[in-house]
Amino acid sequence: MTTIPTSFYATADILTMLGIDPNQQYIPVRHVLRSVGLAPASYERALRRIPVLAAGLKPLWINDEHGNRLPALCLRVDLVPLWLSMLPSKPGSLLAQWQIEVASVLWQQFKPNGATTQDVFVGARYQQDNLDQAYVQAQEIAAVARHQLLGERELDAQIAQHESQTAAHLSDDGATQLVQMTRQTAMTSATLRKRNDYLGIFVGLVRVFQIHSLRAMPPSRLHAALTWLERWQNDLLDEITADESKE
Question: Is the per-residue pLDDT at 217 higher than 60?
Answer without folding.
Answer: yes
